[in-house]
Amino acid sequence: MSLTPLDKKAIQRSFERAAPGYDGHAILEREIESRLLERLDHLQQAPDMIADIGCGTGSASSLLAKRFEPARLITLDWSAAMLRQACQHGDPRLMLLCADMHALPLAARSVDLIFSNLALQWSCDLSAVFHEFRRIMKPGAMLVFTCYGPDTLNELKGAWRAVDELPHVNDFPDMHDIGDELMSAGFREPVMDVERMTLDYPHVMALMRELKGSGAHNVATHRMRGLTGKSRLRDMQRAYESYRHNGRYPASYEIIYGAAFAPAEGQPVRTADGDVATFSVDALRIR
């Protein structure tokens, strides 16, 4: 899977700045969150420990806590400013944790359910993320997630391509590549599907302001640094005119939904050195 490398520090700064006003811009994110929550309707066993990975301002964490009372909930994000917003929900069962999803400071086999809404597209290494997810999940635990796919913001990508060859819009992973990474990490029964949504705006700058307000602007490692010149911005807006329909400017989103289960104890995982199986001490006790 070859994607444009992302600047992790820039991602963190972006969400730090966006946090105070994030909920006012996250209309699409909240809609996708609601649809992902619906996929838990048929969860057969109520979880005792839930991890909301990439929780943002804690909207889903609060809803999960109400839904699965008295479960405990780890509300995890790598933006301290986002977690300060999550504090405002005031639920004592939300255990706020500022951490990187590539290296989770959580015990192995400690989580019954991982919920992750629109966080995986910010990963620099999906393989590392899924291996960490598997490590902290109990055997049979459930993972549900969403992620933007490669057709997201095609109009904006096309408009910028008419101006220059620099990366202005982040690349997003393909559904099949995500599925392959899940399988490589040893998850079982993965189910993937895609939904496409289009929002429209009165002008292009309204879209740009919404992306910036939700922290979702360009963080490619090889992006142009500094301010975008007015003439280049005008050229991009002029190129975007070809997408205008009924006086509105569309922005397309490809949303990938995924669900999978942690494998049974001892199920091997593929590594560069071959398949490796791990067992808890309890599993090895003579009964």
Describe the structure.
The chain has 287 residues and is of the alpha/beta class. It has a domain of 188 residues: Vaccinia Virus protein VP39 (Rossmann fold). Helix content is 34%, strand content 24%. The chain is built from eleven helices and nine strands. Strands 3-2-1-4-5-7-6 form a seven-stranded mixed sheet, with helices on both faces. α5 links the parallel β2 and β3. α7 crosses α10. It is globular and about 65 Å long.
Give a quick summary of the entry:
The mean pLDDT is 89. Helices cover 34% and strands 24% of the residues.
Can you tell me the overall shape?
globular
Broad CATH class of the domain at 8-152 and 169-199 and 253-264: Alpha Beta
Continuous helix count: 11
Mean of all residue-level pLDDT scores? 89
Second-tier CATH architecture of the domain at 8-152 and 169-199 and 253-264: 3-Layer(aba) Sandwich
Give the terminus-to-terminus CA distance: 44 Å
Q: Main sheet, how many strands, which sense, barrel?
A: 7 strands, mixed
Strand content: 15-25%
Low-confidence stretches: none
Features:
Rossmann fold, 287 residues, 7-stranded mixed sheet, alpha/beta, globular
